[in-house]
Amino acid sequence: MRFVKMQGIGNDFIMFNGLNGETLDQPDALARRICDRHYGIGGDGLIWMLPSERADARMRVFNSDGGEAEMCGNGIRCAALFLRNEGAVSAPEMTIDTLAGVLTARFVQEGIEVDMGVPCVEPAIIPVASEDNILDIDIEDRRLRFFCVSMGNPHAVTFDLYPEDAQFRWLGPLLERHPVFPHGANIEFCRVRDDGLDVRVWERGDGETLACGTGACASLVAAASLGLLGREGQVRLPGGTLQIRWDQNDHVWMTGAAQKVFEGVWADV
Predict the structure, then answer these.
(1) Catalytic residues
(2) Cβ atoms 80, 105 nearer than 8 A
(3) Where are the alpha helices (DSSP H) in the chain?
(4) Do 153 and 84 have their domain in common?
(5) CATH code of the domain covering residue 104
(6) Three-state DSSP class for residue 195
(7) Is 171 helix (H, G, I), strand (E, B) or coil?
(8) What is the pLDDT of residues 81-139, one digit of tens each?
(9) pTM metric for this prediction
């Protein structure tokens, strides 16, 4: 089956076109095989584009561990470019159906801009096993405070620590599956700058990634909510920079690049 490899500031995906009825057998198992960087193509996830009754197309995202994600910010920009390149949508603006709802993407001079919707801080919806979306977690002899928010998927953002590699890779897995997060969580470690944030993300189901679009949105929302930053700024991740804007109507807009890397045929389907 034909695939296209795409990336958005280093977050890379294997894209399959199911708009014409082509199917994937057990896409969760396929994601584990195909995303392997030694024995497969290599990627942070598999994205399967399908028809939708309420949007231009539907996006299903499977992380490299096979788990299906509700949303993926860098993935939806790749999906928008994929739809345009495949000739499925010709207009500069399109709608994409996700497990987090129908989102709008449009091509602008700076790249691809996506309306990521309204963030949610209700603990039961995020979800977190807490009465408040701001909570403290003790990891051995360290206490970290997290601002939890859903961007269609769960995020826990801290400004208490911006770890070096070894500490980041130790803390990430412990926090991702901490009991306070019933469905796991994406973990953002942030550092405030004058014009925005530096962010490292331990992504649920993928681990260390070069970028996370929903994580960038969650981090800006957390910083603005805590009075650490305004409602717009640059979010710098290891793979590149995203421009995030939290409008007065509470919708979060993300702008960044996407790129086709190569295409080929996956024989083991």
Answers:
(1) 72, 212
(2) yes
(3) 27-34, 73-85, 165-176, 213-225
(4) no
(5) 3.10.310.10
(6) coil
(7) helix
(8) 999 999 999 999 999 999 999 999 999 999 999 999 999 999 999 999 999 999 999 98
(9) 0.92
